[in-house]
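Running this now, will post back.
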Amino acid sequence: MKSRPVLPPLDQWTRGGTRVPVGAHEVFVRQDGPADGAPVTLLHGFPTSSHDWAAVVPSLAGAGLRVTTLDFLGFGESDKPRRHTYSVLDQAALVEEVWQRTGIGRTALVAHDYGVSVGQELLARDPSRITRMAWLNGGLYPDLHRPIRTQRLLHGPLGPLLAPLTTRRRFGSALRGVLGRELSDEDVRELWAAASRAGGHRRAPRLLRYIDERRRHAGRWTAALEEYPGPALFVWGPADPISGAHVLERVRTRLPRASVVELTGSPAVGHYPQLEDPVVVAGALRSFLTA
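Update: finished.
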């Protein structure tokens, strides 16, 4: 049976936000839920955008949470400067600037994929600012990260030559290779629209330098993860070939106090839990964030 879309159209999502000046660039920011609700910030992954969260945001906002989503620099509706040196450290500073501009002090944090590294950097800077932390599939431990062939090629010396050749079809093929459950053609089309807007797919080799940053900051970021004193939740797709069951095994060993929701199901969920099983993910996040 053909999969049904789980995401609203990208243009509908972006109409609900605004572009905020941060330094020399503009960053897309969206806020949902009551202005006086408990803050939660959602950090998206590579190579997509905050639109990834569109299927779970209504549930969180409906629970009375003040939900902030944003597109990192180089992603989605945010600026995608051509010759910029993209850095996880700078993306963390960008999040802090968004918090300042939107009046957010302490906040819960939910992170996926690329956003996991940004979340670890934010924890390393000021763990007292994060009220509770939820993680979805991402490279928490660099030695366990298993990038797919497309990522390895784009991260290599031929990356600048290969990136412009990326098409929606190739994007969809690579995306489906990391999923445990099928996404609709409509959803893949919308995800590609965000990734490729303003030539964003051409920025992939520069953005993928986060793989090197993970190795360089491994000790500091691992300590931030394992020493965080607040409540922690892992909502994990075990069928993810990049950061799946093998990462969750270490999480259970190193963070025995954390709560874990493993999305086994039939079939098991892969790399994008919030897209592959949005109802269960929204319920798990809602319960955790309102506890």
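The CA atoms of residues 16 and 30 lie 6 Å apart. More later if anyone needs it.
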